[in-house]
Amino acid sequence: MGTAGNVQPKIVTGDAGYVLEDVPHLADYIPDLPTYPNPLQDNAAYSVVKQYFVNDDDSVAQKIVVHKSSPRGTHFRRAGPRQKVYFESDEVHACIVTCGGLCPGLNTVIREIVCGLNHMYGVNRVLGIAGGYRGFYSQNTISLTPKVVNDIHKRGGTILGTSRGGHDTSKIVDSIQDRGINQVYIIGGDGTQRGASVIFEEIQRRGLRVAVAGIPKTIDNDIPVIDKSFGFDTAVEEAQRAINAAHVESESIENGIGVVKLMGRYSGFIAMHATLASRDVDCCLIPESPFYLEGPGGLFEFIEKRLKENGHMVIVMAEGAGQELLSESMRSADRQDPSGNKLLQDVGLWISQKIRDHFSRSKRMGITLKYIDPTYMIRAVPSNASDNVYCTLLAQSAVHGAMAGYTGFTVGPVNGRHSYIPFYRIIERQNKVVITDRMWARLLSSTNQPSFLSPTDIIEDKKEEAPQSQLLNGENGRDDEALEKVISNTC
Ligand SMILES: Nc1ncnc2c1ncn2[C@@H]1O[C@H](COP(=O)(O)OP(=O)(O)OP(=O)(O)O)[C@@H](O)[C@H]1O
Ligand SMILES: O=P(O)(O)OC[C@H]1O[C@](O)(CO)[C@@H](O)[C@@H]1O
Ligand SMILES: [Mg+2]
Known about the structure:
By secondary structure, the chain is of the alpha/beta class. It has 16 helices and 19 strands. It has helices at residues 26-29, 44-47, 106-121, 135-138, 169-179, 190-206, 232-251, 269-278, 299-310, 323-329, 347-362, 385-403, 423-427, 438-447, 455-465, 480-490, and strands spanning 10-13, 18-22, 36-37, 59-61, 73-78, 84-85, 93-98, 125-129, 141-143, 183-188, 211-216, 256-262, 283-285, 312-318, 335-336, 342-343, 368-372, 409-414, 417-422.
């Protein structure tokens, strides 16, 4: 497996602290490339649109909450069609690959890349790479036409298949070169984007005229910079069914407890949003917010209190929550999946047993606990209507970017505007719930659960570690290190 990081950032500066973190372009390393007028200018659907082509100077601000004296800050290149393109329609030979875990909307993105290339740019040659990265060198390809992909957005999963592990950079680039592919669309999460970055570096090293475009996918919503990843809303919606079931079960019996475990390896966004959406949840546990079980202020005490007040309760937890407690009590070897991601133990099962044991030991109160694990059900469904629209925009932005000769970029909305973001910004860290942010405060006030943290610890630590921290607004800031310190000090 390769490592990313050999690409020189393309930074453009301007007045008043303006910074553009630009994406690479084929013309950066191939001289005298011919350009062509964008065929969209003759397309009846688009020619009526005023200012259809994006101005080359358009950029999107990363930070939109500013003060009178704030510098203008970091910007990304705005996505969209350009007046000039760097490929003629009949020379484009594109390929699409999906990698990592499933996510609602994968098929919609595949469909819209194929249809976007065909309907907007007259491209007829698009290959599907089967089974993730390793499919480049170990599987047959699938020919993708608008007809083949016509109905696929109605199905969950990915028609191309996916996998973890198996990223062999030079074999992948050999396959791209041997097949004469000149546009590569790579759909996947943080690991996939790391893989895309090294593919791009190798392509650039070989001097190939091949555009590499990443489309960010992750149900955990842990990709930084972009507003939100596709499929996330669908997953949150689907999680409501499990939470409703837990609520119905728990309120139908005296001292009923429903425990629901949701995905979220390192980031608790699904659990947090599903909790906020439901209003039936009494306690939400996420990896970013440490908690403890026993003693004053602990989870058991809170459960007892809530059962006395309401007679029932629902706990929602992300799969990555409380892993440190779990590994303390059940020593087990660290295991990894083929991509090197840590394999987690089932925290839902573990906590359910701990709660049962506690109440049977204390004999103060008899409880009935039902554990619901809808893990794969929330990601194997087709995307909902708003995710479908979002996937369409992502796919079209990626197509416009590749046709315009941009490469080594991931596409995604930044403050609502689709942008081209250099790979290094997408892979430098994972997005996490900021527990000193207003959103987590909203959750705490909605569930009325304890924070399991002492506020003085947070304030003291913020003073000490991050004097200029902006954790309160949590807008894609780079404050995770300070936050991690807060968390580890309060464990
Ligand atoms: N540092 C890396 N360099 C090259 N390839 C990588 C790297 N990290 C991961 N990959 C490859 O990317 C692919 C997907 O990675 P991974 O299984 O971590 O899923 P992901 O893209 O992070 O998606 P998700 O976590 O949302 O399921 C795998 O084929 C893996 O080999
Ligand atoms: O079982 P799989 O397919 O490896 O996927 C599980 C993981 O994928 C994710 O959905 C995304 O990383 C995690 O939340 C989860 O731990
Ligand atoms: Mg990942």
